[in-house]
Design brief:
The protein is an alpha/beta fold. It folds into two domains: 4-165, Rossmann fold (3-Layer(aba) Sandwich); 170-291, N-(1-d-carboxylethyl)-l-norvaline Dehydrogenase, domain 2, CATH 1.10.1040.10. It is 50% helix and 14% strand. The strands form two sheets. Strands 3-2-1-4-5-6 form a six-stranded parallel β-sheet, sandwiched between helices. A three-stranded mixed β-sheet has the order 7-8-9. Bound molecules: NADP nicotinamide-adenine-dinucleotide phosphate (NAP). NADP nicotinamide-adenine-dinucleotide phosphate binds at residues 9-14, 32-34, 37, 65-68, 70-71, 74-75, 96-97, 122, 125-126, 233-235, 238.
Length: 292
């Protein structure tokens, strides 16, 4: 049971996720800060709201898929924000990757107003969002997840119930910690091969030929790294944000994660050099493997 669904945030991921909801027959109305991105939805007969408040007032379930905590606040708070239109019994599903601390605040705020809240970041990039096969990392009550299962499985191939919110956000950071390492490994492997005079394509070929090392993720990053064309699937700036969330959790919990510290430094360097809006594989540009 999901009834009318409002969708906020039509970026790389949100536009594809909302399109899948429409395809699966849900009654969808959308809002996006940059209004032009709502045009394809309007052409398909979806409603377009002028404000998040208007959208939240119309729908039974409001999905938010924006960049970061500041963006969630921008669309949810204030006189025209989503919270101004949500009321008791409605459901808010945040699918944006935010910090667990921020998720806890959202969950508390919803609980005080009788709004059902799900903490549902996703694992999987542009192609999975397009195919509707994202892995949904769900934080919330089993009952709320069950009630929204059909809706969630219209965007994803699998729901992993992590526990009560903010467990979804914690799980998402665990997964992105691994992905950050994998990206830095393949970017540094490419860079190291080039410095050694080895064709980096051979590194990818070798990994692919070895059943113990072959990995679809490395294959996805093969072309961008070999051609140095970093068209964004997962923008580097979002991984930088997530690495900062991870380090902040590590600090709160007094955990030492030295490899992730190094990954964060590389991400920061890449962003400083102007590669934040490019794909995460542009971490290659932040590596400075030659000692001065
Ligand atoms: P994106 O393409 O950069 O889109 C960001 C969305 O947030 C846009 O709709 C943007 O609106 C909106 N937004 C940003 N700041 C805003 C503000 N201040 N006020 C209102 N709206 C604002 O990002 P994405 O790749 O779709 O990622 C969305 C979320 O999913 C992020 O949290 C990301 O970490 C996570 N994620 C991404 C991937 C991936 O592979 N891309 C995979 C898993 C999870 P405008 O259109 O107006 O700019």
């Amino acid at each position: 049971m999901s009834g009318k669904t409002g969708f906020i945030g039509l970026g790389i991921m949100g536009s594809r996720m909302a399109a899948n909801l429409v395809k699966k027959g849900f009654e969808v109305c959308v809002y996006n800060r940059t209004r032009e991105k709502t045009e394809p939805f309007k052409q398909q007969g979806c409603g377009v709201s002028y404000t998040p408040k208007q959208l939240a007032g119309w729908c039974d379930t409001l999905i938010v898929m924006v960049s970061d905590p500041a963006a969630v606040e921008a669309v949810m708070e204030g006189e025209n924000g989503g919270f101004a239109g949500l009321s008791k019994g409605k459901t808010l599903i945040n699918m944006s990757t935010v910090s667990p601390e921020f998720t806890r605040q959202l969950a508390d705020k919803c609980a005080k107003s009788g709004i059902n809240f799900l903490d549902c970041p996703v694992s999987g990039s542009k192609p999975l969002a397009e195919a509707g096969t994202l892995v949904i990392l769900a934080g919330g009550s089993a009952q709320d997840i069950k009630r929204n299962e059909k809706l969630l499985l219209s965007m994803g191939g699998k729901i992993i119930h992590a526990g009560p919110a903010p467990a979804g956000s914690y799980l998402k950071l665990c997964v992105n910690l691994v992905m950050g390492h994998m990206t830095s490994a393949i970017a540094e492997g490419t860079s190291f091969a080039e410095a050694c005079g080895v064709n980096p394509a051979l590194v990818f070929d070798t990994l692919e030929a070895n059943p113990a090392l072959q990995c679809r993720y490395f294959n996805m990053k093969r072309q961008p790294l070999l051609e140095k064309k970093f068209t964004p699937a997962f923008p580097l700036k979002h991984m930088l944000k997530d690495a900062r969330f991870i380090m902040s959790v590590a600090e709160q919990k007094d955990i030492d994660i030295p490899v992730t510290s190094a990954v964060l430094e590389i991400l920061e360097k890449s962003a400083e050099k102007g590669h934040g809006d490019e794909d995460i594989s542009a971490m290659y540009e932040g590596l400075e493997i030659h000692k001065k």
